Amino acid sequence: MARIVLQNSDITRALTRISHEILESNRGADDLVILGIPTRGVILAERIGAQIRQIEAAAPVDLVGSLDVTMYRDDLAHHPTRAPQRTRVPDGGIDGKTVVLVDDVLYSGRTIRAALDAIGDLGRPRAVRLAVLVDRGHRELPIRADFVGKNLPSSTDERINVRLDEIDGIEEVSIDLAIGAGA
What we know:
This protein is α/β, with parallel strands linked by helices. The chain has four helices and eight strands, in the order βαβαββαβββαβ. It comes from Agreia pratensis.
């Protein structure tokens, strides 16, 4: 049985806070690029971009893009994955800019490692930051998020489910026992 840990208003508050923290850390929206990792990371990145444009009138319209990391993953042989998605970088590229990677859940760190490899093929940013809606712990690599909506320590037997209106028709984060665990 799933336990809801974040509802629509909690997610909105977390993304608003993350948007403010990104602007504060970057000292505005100049030379800022936000790249969402498909699938839900792209939606979260778009929402953060919209918040930043609302907060900072001088923010560029083309601020948000997407970064597919499928072919950069080191676990393709072990885990079936979805078909590669399109990578889209805002006009002007990433060279010399601060890139904020956005993902829904930070777990082992392997997706972010793949994202860093993908960024290396796109250019040389001034800095790379990480924003996640949920940090659940259990890192396998030395990766830490700079901007976190909710720290949610969890067991490896549990599954964190992020559902967003645009994909799932519902807005929530829930935690439940993974299939086959605890039996």
